[in-house]
């Protein structure tokens, strides 16, 4: 069963995601980032090129020829995921087919536009009995 991890209280959701991905990338952990909104995908792509400040987080899009070799992959759809290890949701909806992944990461800011849909997703997972972990990252990200 998919392990769900909610990191809540981020000051800026996109920057917290970039920080989390930088750490995962440094550890060589494969992460598929579900980002169906093209504008958000572009914003995250640009941010990962400059984060951390002294480098960048190696990543590519799912349709890139290097996707199978790159730990961080941005995907606008989940029809044919490259792996089933870790999925990070950068959508305000439940990611389709999330249950085929070993782990699902949700990063939520304190902004109402982000927090309220995040609560709905949390409730959805909890009501279906998924193992859940919730961590307050307001002091760290």
Features:
single chain, alpha/beta, Rossmann fold, 141 residues, seven-stranded parallel beta sheet
The class by helix and strand makeup works out as alpha/beta
The tally of structural domains comes to 1
CATH fold-level name: Rossmann fold
Name of the CATH superfamily? DNA polymerase III subunit chi
Known CATH architecture: 3-Layer(aba) Sandwich
Poorly predicted parts: none
Q: Treating each run of at least 4 consecutive H or I residues as one helix, how many helices?
A: 3
User: Quick one: biggest sheet?
Assistant: 7 strands, parallel
Describe the fold and architecture.
The chain is an alpha/beta fold and 141 residues long. The chain has one domain (3-136): Rossmann fold, CATH 3.40.50.10110. It is built from three helices and seven strands, in the order βαβαββββαβ. Strands 3-4-2-5-6-1-7 form a seven-stranded parallel β-sheet, sandwiched between helices. It is globular and about 40 Å long. The two termini are 28 Å apart. The model has no long low-confidence stretch (mean pLDDT 95).
Map the helices and strands.
Elements: E1 3-10, H1 13-26, E2 31-34, H2 38-50, E3 59-61, E4 72-75, E5 86-89, E6 103-109, H3 112-127, E7 132-136
Parallel strand pairs: 1-6, 1-7, 2-4, 2-5, 3-4, 5-6
Helix pairs in contact: 1-2
Q: Would you summarize the structure shown here?
A:
This protein has three helices and seven strands; from the N terminus they run E-H-E-H-E-E-E-E-H-E.
């Amino acid at each position: 069963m998919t392990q769900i991890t909610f990191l809540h209280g981020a000051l800026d959701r996109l920057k917290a995601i970039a920080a989390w991905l930088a750490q995962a990338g440094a550890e060589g952990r494969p992460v598929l980032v579900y980002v169906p909104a093209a504008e958000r995908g572009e914003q995250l792509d640009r941010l990962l090129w400059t984060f951390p400040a002294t480098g960048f987080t190696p990543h590519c899009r799912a349709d890139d020829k290097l996707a199978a070799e790159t730990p961080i992959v941005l995907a606008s759809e989940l029809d044919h995921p490259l792996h089933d290890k870790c999925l990070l949701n950068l959508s305000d909806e439940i990611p389709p087919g999330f249950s085929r992944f070993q782990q699902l990461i949700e990063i939520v800011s304190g902004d109402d536009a982000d927090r309220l849909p995040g609560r709905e997703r949390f409730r959805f997972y909890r009501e279906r009995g998924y193992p859940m972990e919730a961590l307050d990252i307001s002091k760290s990200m």
